[in-house]
Amino acid sequence: MADLLAMFLVLLTFAVVPLFTAIWGCRAVRKWYQRLCAKRDALEWKAATLVPVSLPVALAGIGRILYHGGYDVLKDQNEEYGAIYWRGDWNITRLPAARKVGWSEVPVFASACCYVGDTEDETVVCLKFDVASFVRVSPRLREFCLGHLKDECDRTVASLMSAAEKVAEREAERARSETEAAACDADLATLALGRDASWESVKAAYRDCCMKYHPDRFGGQHVPPHLVDLAVTRFKEVNAAYRRLKDRMVPSNGCGSPWTAVPPNGGSSN
Predict the structure, then answer these.
(1) pTM over 0.90
(2) Partners of 95 in the β-ladder
(3) Within 10 Å of residue 121's Cβ, how many Cβ atoms?
(4) pLDDT by residue (tens digit) across 181-220?
(5) CA atoms in the 13 A half-sphere facing the CB of 54
(6) C-alpha count within 13 angstroms, C-beta hemisphere, residue 189
(7) Is the separation of the CB atoms in 246 and 227 below 8 Å?
(8) Do 208 and 161 lie in a common domain?
């Protein structure tokens, strides 16, 4: 038994090891192995786009899109600049696999790197989708995988841009609402009223202002012309403010919806 073991060690030392070393040292074999590794490493798809939202909004949008696409977040994510996501069955280590496999089962990583653009309301988003490096993909399935990676990348970019447009629309609507509210506050202030004023209060204040500033009030009185001009200007301002308030606060006289900033005291539609 000892002699057999000794013969095996001698054979291993003087035959097998030199043969393996010679094969490994062959330049053609090394190139073949390098090409194989390069193909596996290059199985990815990248894209970059400028999104018209802030960086936190962009990161949150990417997270939601990928979550609905079946991805989970890795624990070692960088919450400030981006994150890495993954999905698939990690028991799959080669394609084609021993069983029929859907694309959603293939282990894939999705990386998102974001940074602020020219303004704080713009974000540069860089995306990368790649098949996990431990998955050996046959050459005939390489284009198949690249096509699916491109599709996922394109869908993510399209979804992100669509979400950004909706955010922009909401922001524009909010800005319009704030502008309208400020304008209504100014009209109420013209009648010496606050935001809690009801329509009845507006009508009463308007009547008081008419009695105070109407030009006919100064007929036959010795009032300096410049004061009359001031009263006329003030009366025009009161009239304009009253008309705008009526359009906002009375549904039948405006666009069909009352001004929501006015409390529900309501009032008549006169």
Answers:
(1) no
(2) 137
(3) 15
(4) 888 889 999 888 888 888 899 999 989 988 888 877 776 6
(5) 5
(6) 6
(7) no
(8) no
User: Got the DSSP string for 127-175?
Assistant: EEEEE-TT-EE-HHHHHHHHHHHHHHHHHHHHHHHHHHHHHHHHHHHHH
Is 270 contained in some domain?
A: no
pLDDT computed for residue 258 by the predictor:
39
Looking at the structure, tell me whether residues 144 and 100 fall in a common domain.
yes
Instruction: List residues bridging with 84 in a β-sheet.
Output: 111
Q: Are 152 and 52 found together in one domain?
A: yes
Burial class (CB in 10 A: 0-12, 13-18, 19+), 24: exposed
By the 8 A CB rule, do 214 and 235 touch?
Answer: yes
The answer to whether 36 touches 138, Cβ cutoff 8 Å, is no
Per the structure, the count of domains in the chain is 2
Closest Cα partner for 268 from 253, 260, 171, 10? Answer: 253
Tokens (6 digits) for 138: 């046959």
Residues with Cβ within 8 Å of residue 250, at least 6 apart in sequence: 199, 258, 267, 269
The verdict on whether omega for the bond into residue 215 sits within 30 degrees of 0, i.e. cis, is: no
| pLDDT band of 261, cuts 50, 70, 90 | very low
Residue 177 has which token pair? 């609402």
Yes or no: say if 186 and 178 are a contact pair by the CB < 8 Å rule.
no
Spatial separation of the C-alpha atoms in residues 247 and 133, rounded to whole Å: 65
Q: Any idea which residue has 């936190």 for tokens?
A: 56
- For residue 90, give the amino acid letter: W
What's the DSSP call for residue 117? -
User: Is the Cβ–Cβ distance between 124 and 114 less than 8 Å?
Assistant: yes
Residue 229's domain comprises 191-253
Give the whole-angstrom CA distance, residue 95 versus residue 51: 35
